[in-house]
Amino acid sequence: MASNVVSPASKTSSRGGDSRKHSDDTRLALLFITPAAVGFLVFLIWPLIRGIYLSFTSYNLLTAATWNGLNNYKQMVLDPVFWNALKVTLEYVVINIGVQTIIALVIAVMMQRLTKSLVVRGIILTPYLVSNVVAALVGLWILDTNLGIFNELLKLIGLNPVGFFTDGPWVIPTIALVNVWRYVGYTSLLIFAGLQTIPPDLYEAARTDGASEPQMFVRITLPLLRPILALVLIISIIGSFQVFDTVSVTTQGGPVDSSRVLQYYIYDMAFGRFRFGYASALSVALLIVLMIVTFIQYRLTRAGQTDLA
Amino acid sequence: MATLAPVDVTTDSTPPTIAPAGRKRVSVGRVIAWVVMVVIMVVTLAPFYWIIRTALSSNGDLLTHPSDPFPVGFSLDSFKRVFGWQTGAAAVAAGGAGQPINFWLYLRNSVIVSCLVTAGQVFFSAMAAYAFARLKWRARGPVFAVFLAGLMVPAIFTFLPNFVLIKELHMIDTLIGIALPSMLISPFAIFFLRQFFATIPNEIEEAALIDGASKVGIFFRLVIPMSAAPITTLAVLTYITSWNDYFWPLMVSYTDKSRVLTVALAVFKSQTPNTGPDWAGLMAATLVAALPMLVLFLVFARRIVNSIGFSGIK
Amino acid sequence: MKRIGMIKPKFPKFAKPGTTRIKAVLATGVTALLATVLSACSGGAGGTASNVISYWLWDSSQEPGYQQCADLFHKANPGLSVKITQYGWNDYWTKLTAGFIAGTAPDVFTNHLTKYPQFVDLNVLQPLDELPATKGISNDEFQPGLGELWTGQDGHRYGSPKDWDTVGLFYNENLLQKAGVDPSELNNLAWNPQNGGTFEKLIAHLTIDTHGVRGDQKGFDKNHIAVYGFGGLGAGDNMAQTTWSAFAYSNGWTYMNKNPWGNSYNYASPKLQETLKWYFGLAQKGYAPTYNSFSSSFGGFNQLAANKAAIVQDGAWMIATYQTIKGVKWGIAPMPVGPTGHRAGPLGSLADSITKTAKNKDAAAKWVQFMSTAQCQNVIAKAGVVFPARPASTQLSLQTRKAAGIDASSFVDMVQNNETFFLPISSYGADITAIMTPGLQAIYTGQKPVSYLETLNEQVNRLFKLN
C-alpha cells in the first residue's frame, strides 16, 4: 500500500534533481505530524491494539479478560450468523456505494458544468443535516406497508404495497437507499472539491477543439478526478461497511437475519450479550475485510490509471 | 495521479477568452441534464416535506392519520417543546417528554464543541497532510499507510478505552472531553487534504523556494491559500458531522452543562422499548437543529469553489 | 476549579516544541481555547458529592412523578438530595454499562427484569438486604410475586419493586360499533388451538377486506385487508411479553423447568407448538397482520390508532400512550380464557437497584426504601402512568384512571385472581433472545415450520450445559 501513495510531488523531484538540497525534511515533517500522531496513537492505535488483544480473550466487560487463544476465531469460522452477516453487509455496501457514487458524480459534475447556483448546492447537502436516526425514522413512516404515504401512492397507481422494511429481499436495498439519500450530497461535495483542481482552461481548450460535454467528461473530468474519486470511494466504502444506526432503528436485523449486518451483530454481541471478546474477534474480521478491500482498491485505481495529456 | 500533466497543457493551450460556464447555447443534452438535476432535487427534498408536515401536526392526530399528505391537527406546539416553552405537564399530555429543556445552553455547547473539533481537526490534519504530501522524508509512505489504516479501526474498539481515558483525565461531563478525541486527528481529513496538496504544481513551490521562502512559509502562504476551497469544504463538512455527532457526546455528558443539542433533543426519541417517540417534537427538533447548519453552509457555499485556481496563480 | 489544576500541567507538553513561531502561536491559541471552555464548564461534575444521590430512569413520562418523590425525600432527609437523570431506553443501558466500567454509574437506577440476571452474574448490583435502610423491605408489602421476581438465585434481594404490569386486550370502540359488537362481549371470550373458539370468531367478524367484506362472510379476500380483527401480532422473542406468551400459558405451557432461575427451557413443547401454529395461523387467515404488513416499530398501538386494527394485545404500561390518541375511542378487556379454563398474562415489574459503586450506599438505600413506601408510591399512583407495586397504591392508581375515564380493572383482576405468570428469569437472557428472535421470525414468515422450535430449544438449552 505504501508504495502506491507516493505523491506526484516526489516523483518530479526525483526526476528534477534541482531540489536535492531540500531532499530531507524529516525534522520538519515530524514536527508537522506530531499533533495528529499524538491523537492517532492515543485515540486510535492504543484502542486498536487493546481490541486485538481482547479478541484472543474471553471478556465480559466487567470482570478481567482471560486468555483463550484462538477460541473466538474458531467459533467465528463455525458461526453461520457471522457468515450471513458478512454476506448481508457486502450486499448493502455494493448497493449503497454503487448508487451513491454514480449519483454523487452526476451531481458534482452538474454543479461544476451546469449550474453554479448556491441554492442547488444547499439543497443537495440538506439530507446530511439530518441525523442517521431521524433519516431512518422518517423512512419508516414514509415507507411502511400499511401506514406509509409512499405505499398509498403506489396503490393509487395500481401497484401492490411493498414491505420495504419487512420483506426479506427488500430490506437491504431499502436501507441502502435511505443512506444514499442522506450521504449523496456529502459525497458529491467531496467530488466537487476534486473537480476544482481541474483547470477550467482545459475545458475551454477541448471546446475549441469541438469536444462535446460527454467527451470532455470521459477525457478530462474522469482521468483528472481519479485521485479524489479513489479517495471518496475508499472513505465511503469504509463508512458503508460500518452501517448500524439505520438497521437498529428500522429492522433490528430482521426479518430473520436478512438485515443483520456485521456491525449490528457486533454491537449486540458486545453490549447486549456482554461477549466482548467474541465481538472483538468479529471486529478484527471486519478490519481485515476493510484492509483487503482498500488494498484492492488502491491497486485498481492505480492500475487503471491513464494519463490524459 | 495524473495531476502534473494538465499544467503543461494549460501553459500552451489556453485561449485568453474564458467564457463563464453558465452561458452556453441550449442543447438537448443540457435540457436532459436539467431534468435529471430537478428530479434529484425533488427526491432530496421530498422527505423534508414529510418532516415539516409531521412537525406541524399534533401527535394524537398523526397516529389516526398516518398517511394524510397534509399536516393533521395543525399546531406549533412541537416547536414550543423544542425551545422548552411548554410546561412539562402540557408536553406529556401532548405525547412529549416532561423534562425542562434549556435550548440556548445546549446550542452554545454544540457551537463550542463543533468549533473546537473543526478548528483542531482541520488545522492539525492540514499540517500532517502537508508533511505527507510535500515534505520529503524517509518513512513517509509507511507512516501514511498506517495513518490511513486508522480510518478502518472499528468504533467498538475505540469507544470504551477512550471513555475510560477521558474519565481518567477528569474530563467526563466537560465540553473538552467531548471534543478532544476528534480534535487532534481525523485520518479522513489527512487523506483528503493530502490528495489536494499533492496536486499543487511543483514549479510553484520551487519558485517560492528560490525566492527564499521556507517550507513552513510555503505551508502557510502557498499551500493553505491555494487549497482554500477544499479546506473550506472539509471544514464545513467536519462542522456538520461534529454537530450531528450523538453517541460520543451522549457518553461523556452527564449534566446540562456539557449537553449538546443532539443529545438534549434525543428526549424526543423513543423513551421506552414499547412506546413510540414524540413524532411531531422529533421532527421539529430535527428542523431546528439543522437550521444553523444550513445557514452556515450557505455562508460558506460560495467559498467551496476555488477562487484562485491554477490559472490565477500564474 | 479543581479540574483545571489537574489538566494544566498537560499544556506545556503541547507548548514545548514551540521553537518555531507557528508552534508557539498554535499552542497559545489552543491553550486559550481550552482555558475558555474549561472556565465556562468548571461547575464540577454534577452530583458527585456523597450527599447527592444520582438516580437514573428511562421513561420520561415518569420523571415528573419521581421528581415529586425526590422533593419529598429531601424534605424528610434534609441532608440528602436526589439528582434524577433520564436517558432513552437504548442509550440508558449502553451508558449504564460504560458507567460500570469507568466508575461513572449512578448510585441508584431503575432496573428491568430482562437485564438484571445479567447484572447479577456480572456482580455489579448491591444486595439490598445487606444495607440497613433496605434490609426491612418485605415481599408482603407488594403485590404477590413482585418481591420474588427480584430475588436472585443466591436469595439476595437485588431490586425493590416499584411497579408491575401485565397484558390485556385494547379495543377500538369505533370499529367494534361498526361491526355491531358490544364491548362487554370481550369479557367472555375463550380460545383454543384447534378452532380458535369465540375469540377467533369475533376477530374474524371484525376483520374487513378492502372491498368491505368481513372475515366471516363469503367472498372474503384474505390477501387485501383494510382492518385487521386482531392487530399487533408479532413474532415475539424469548419472553413474548405482548405476543404469544399469554396464549401459550392459558394453554398450559410454561417457559422453563423452574421460574425464576430455571436452567431448561420448554420451547420445544407440543403445547407451545400448537399455540404458535394457531397464533401465526391467524395471519395466514387474514385476521391478523402478516410479518410484512407493518414495520416492527408500528405495533398494535399504531395499528389501533390508525383504525387498522379492531383489537390488539398490549401491556398495562401503554395506557398513558393510548391516552394521547385523538379521535378514536378505546377500552380495555382481559385476555381470553384458554383451554386450561383460565386467563393468563405475564407479570412484569420494574425495580430500583443500587450499584456496587454507589458512593454513599446507606443514603442510596434510604432513597430506594423511600420509593417503596406508600408515601412515594401514592404519588406515582396519582401520576397515572404505571401501577405501583403496593396493593393499596394500585387501588389508588385504578381510581385515578377511573376519574380520567379509563377502566383498567381487568389488569388488576388478573393479579388478584392469580392469573399471572412470571416472565422468564434465568441466566443467558440476552443470548436466548439472540437465538429466539430470528428463529420465531422464521416461523412467523413461514420460512420454517413450527417444529423448528425443537432446534431452537436445543440451542437455548445448550447454553446452560456449555457454560
UniProtKB/TrEMBL annotation, chain A:
Keyword Magnesium: no
Disordered as annotated region, ranges: 1-22
Mode of membrane association: Multi-pass membrane protein
Cellular location(s): Cell membrane
GO BP, sorted A to Z: transmembrane transport
Gene3D superfamilies: MetI-like
Composition-biased stretches (Polar residues): 1-16
Keywords: Cell membrane, Membrane, Transmembrane, Transmembrane helix, Transport
UniProt-listed Pfam families: BPD_transp_1 (PF00528)
Main location: membrane
The ABC transmembrane type-1 domain, residue ranges: 86-297
Transmembrane stretches, start-end: 28-49, 92-111, 123-143, 224-244, 276-296
Cellular component, GO, one term: plasma membrane
InterPro entries to which the protein is assigned, alphabetical: ABC_transporter_permease, MetI-like, MetI-like_sf
Family per record: Belongs to the binding-protein-dependent transport system permease family.
Protein name as annotated: Sugar ABC transporter permease
Source species: Microlunatus endophyticus
Automatic annotation (TrEMBL), chain B:
UniProt cross-references to PROSITE patterns, sorted A to Z: ABC_TM1
Coiled-coil annotated residue ranges, if any: none
Membrane topology category: Multi-pass membrane protein
SUPFAM superfamilies registered for this protein in UniProt: MetI-like
Keyword Magnesium: no
This protein's UniProt keywords: Cell membrane, Membrane, Transmembrane, Transmembrane helix, Transport
Pfam families cross-referenced by the UniProt entry: BPD_transp_1 (PF00528)
Entry's Gene Ontology BP terms: transmembrane transport
InterPro entries: MetI-like, MetI-like_sf
A cellular component annotation (GO) from this entry: plasma membrane
Chief localization: membrane
Transmembrane segments: 31-52, 111-132, 144-166, 178-197, 218-240, 279-301
ABC transmembrane type-1 domain mapped to chain residues: 107-300
Keyword Membrane included in the entry's annotation: yes
Similarity field: Belongs to the binding-protein-dependent transport system permease family.
Name listed for the protein in its UniProt record: Sugar ABC transporter permease
Species, as recorded: Microlunatus endophyticus
